[in-house]
Design goal:
The protein has ten helices and four strands; from the N terminus they run E-H-E-H-E-E-H-H-H-H-H-H-H-H. It has helices spanning 10-22, 41-44, 72-83, 91-121, 127-150, 160-169, 183-193, 196-208, 218-224, 229-239; strands spanning 2-6, 26-30, 54-57, 67-70. A four-stranded mixed beta sheet has the order 2-1-3-4, with helices on one face. Helix 1 packs parallel to helix 3 and helix 4 runs parallel beside helix 6 (160-169). The chain is globular. The structure holds glutathione. Glutathione is lined by residues 9-11, 33, 38, 50-53, 71-72, 109, 224.
């Protein structure tokens, strides 16, 4: 019923967590981004931003043609609407869940991504860039810790907002952060990490990609870094 175009990265994990939590039937279609599979025309047709994850729902509510969704936050909202789970109906908690979901999409994800790039992947270590993103991620951990001092999960009950944030806290060491400095984040992190569905989601990742953990080869670096409009066109033509 659901095809998940997926690779074993934080944005991919968000969706397998949701699917495992709800028990929806789904098929994983691996998109190995280190090999450039995100540039295949079949993938670009549903995910024009050449980024995983993307979802195709072959049985959308109300019937009709399949619906394709890209952007992990949009996919989480789509699935929450479809199932009626993990996004409250009531105005106040719903607004909370949506604003923390957007906080992840617009802040934690992009800043942690740049932090990882300049600290771990860039061959030239530029102190200004390393400090800039590491500090910004540190600030965001502080924001999250304050929020979690007042509630068990970011929007009260466990929701799609927590599912979006959690995978971006998993690599806290690579992000240069210490969970001990953020006791409320640590408590929340351990609670979510212990959920059977979350454990299953990460086990699934190991089945799909037994060698996770970063970019290794020069070829992978060439595919992933320094993309421009022209290189995207070229890669798409090569990938077919
Ligand atoms: N805002 C997007 C970001 C997706 C994203 O950055 N995906 C990465 C993996 S985590 C990707 O597909 N990278 C492939 C590339 O850089 O070509 C979302 O949340 O879905």
């Amino acid at each position: 019923m659901l095809d998940l175009h997926y690779w074993t990265t934080p944005n991919g994990h968000k969706i397998t967590i949701f699917l495992e939590e709800t028990g929806l039937a789904y098929k994983i279609i691996p998109v190995d981004i280190g090999k450039g599979e995100q540039f295949k025309s079949s993938f670009l047709a549903i995910a024009p931003n050449n980024r995983i994850p993307a979802l195709v729902d072959h049985r959308p509510a109300g019937g009709g043609e399949p619906i394709a969704v890209f952007e992990s936050g949009a996919i989480l909202m789509y699935l929450a609407e479809k199932t009626g789970q993990f996004l409250p109906r009531d105005l106040r908690p719903r607004t909370d869940a949506i604003q923390w979901l957007f906080w992840q999409m617009g802040n934690l994800g992009p800043m942690a991504g740049q932090n990882n790039h300049f600290s771990n992947y860039a061959l030239e270590k530029i102190p200004y860039a390393v400090d800039r993103y590491r500090n910004e991620v540190n600030r965001l951990y502080g924001v999250l810790d304050k929020r979690l001092a007042d509630c068990a999960f970011v929007a009260g009950d466990y929701s799609i907002a927590d599912m979006a944030i959690y995978p971006w806290i998993v690599p806290y060491e690579r992000q240069g952060q210490k969970l001990e400095d953020f006791p409320h984040v640590k408590r929340w992190f351990e609670a979510i990490g212990g959920r059977p569905a979350v454990v299953r989601a990460y086990e699934k990742a190991k089945e799909i990609n037994p060698r996770p953990g970063g970019i290794r080869t020069a070829e992978e670096r060439a595919i992933l870094f320094g993309q421009t409009a022209a290189s995207v066109e070229r890669a798409a033509a090569r990938a077919g």
